[in-house]
Amino acid sequence: MHHTDEETIALVPELPQAPESLSEIRMCHATLEDLALKILLLTGSQSLKQLADKTRLSFGVASELLRRLRAGLLCEVTGMIGDFPQIAITSIGRSRALELLSVNQYAGVAPVSFESYVAQVRRQSVRDVEVHSDQVRRAFADLTLDSELLRKLGTALNSGAPIFLYGPSGTGKTTIATALSQAFMFDRIWIPHAVEADGQIICVYDPLVHGEIDGPVPEYSDPRWVLCRRPSVVVGGELTIEMLELQFNSVTKFYTAPVQMKANNGILIIDDFGRQRLRPEELLNRWIVPLDRRVDFLTLAGGMKLEIPFELFVVFATNLDPATLVDPAFLRRIQTKIKVDAVSDQQFHAIFRQVCNNFGLQCDPVVIDELINVIRRRVKEPLRACLPRDIVNQVRWAARYERKKPRLDRDALMTAVDAYFVPHSSEFEVEQIHVQ
């Protein structure tokens, strides 16, 4: 799947057609009957079309469910709304629905079968995507990166293997990691609202993670699936080992997919790797099989194990030395390691100009040169990519306090430097002596 800069029409991956009958749905039919009954209890009397819309099932499938529920005396037809039967739950159905809700409160879009989910994730694997230089340049157009770093990132995207971004803090590793998904901006994938596995429901689609595509979708497509961009999921210091497992809600009695399942067919960024609540070796031991074999094993509450596709790019971003975080054997499994280092004087100027443009400010290049010298010689810090934005923000905040228009002159920038940087250790010791 390759796109040029001129391309504006995205390719939509193949999706099985919407089932028109229960026999075409590869899951236990009782699961759908139970779902329809719970919806009738919770939403009250409604038309057959409304039931079909809520479950995202075809009218033909909804009609078959109605016949089965009526045969069991669980619901009845009370009239017509236009051309559609009006359905109401019976007292027997109400008792049955209450029992079902005590077991599982899911009453949303009908799930797809686990087998369908696995097959679709394999079909739209991110590892099969070809990424070329035009896409990489477009993805990082808003960042100031040298051609060698762009080449390394493009090569890494084509590898389909995990990526290690490392280097000093403030050099832009997180920004680069999150921008990687822009290389796939024309790609479209299908995400199911929910998956049924061994009678259990796993919610997969998350509007906070999956960017739904506005606009028409193929007429034949199964509406239980959502057409989305490839996801980009970022987890940082809050990551725990529990977040890598199925999340069972003890109240609703159904599951939410873990972060790596939500990131399937996209990118998962482990930011500030090494500073999570779980130890690095714990995370890496958990993922040693998924990273090698492209499958993960998740366990349902009853002990049944599910073999889930692990079709995603994993990007580890850290300001720690990778050799101190993982053992050599695991480091070999992460075949691409990219160091993101301090920027050059020319890049610093370019980033500073871009920050100024974003805020509608002007700055004399000579003053920026003086700022560079101060950072290097007096503060004794490298030129990090974050510094232009952070220093300009200091100037803006000071101007807001003084009710002035911000000006990036020498005095304002030197004041910002004093506020931003911690004094060098020798200077700090001298100040301490004077205080005593």
Q: Could you explain how this protein is built, in words?
A:
- This protein has 436 residues and is an alpha/beta fold.
- The chain folds into 3 domains: 28-109, Arc Repressor Mutant, subunit A (Orthogonal Bundle), CATH 1.10.10.10; 116-339, 3-Layer(aba) Sandwich (Rossmann fold); 345-435, Helicase, Ruva Protein, domain 3 (Orthogonal Bundle).
- Helices cover 41% and strands 16% of the residues.
- The chain contains 17 helices and 17 strands.
- The protein has helices at 29-43, 48-55, 59-71, 91-103, 114-123, 133-139, 147-159, 173-179, 259-262, 280-293, 322-325, 328-333, 345-359, 365-378, 387-401, 410-420, 425-435; strands spanning 46-47, 75-81, 84-89, 112-113, 163-166, 189-192, 194-197, 200-203, 225-228, 232-235, 247-248, 255-256, 267-270, 295-299, 305-309, 313-318, 336-339.
- A 5-stranded mixed beta sheet has the order 4-7-8-12-11.
- Helix 15 (387-401) packs across helix 16 (410-420).
- The longest helix is centred in the N-terminal third of the chain and has 15 residues, at 29-43.
- The protein is elongated and about 85 Å long.
- The N and C termini lie far apart (68 Å).
- Residues 1-9 and 427-436 have low confidence and may be disordered.
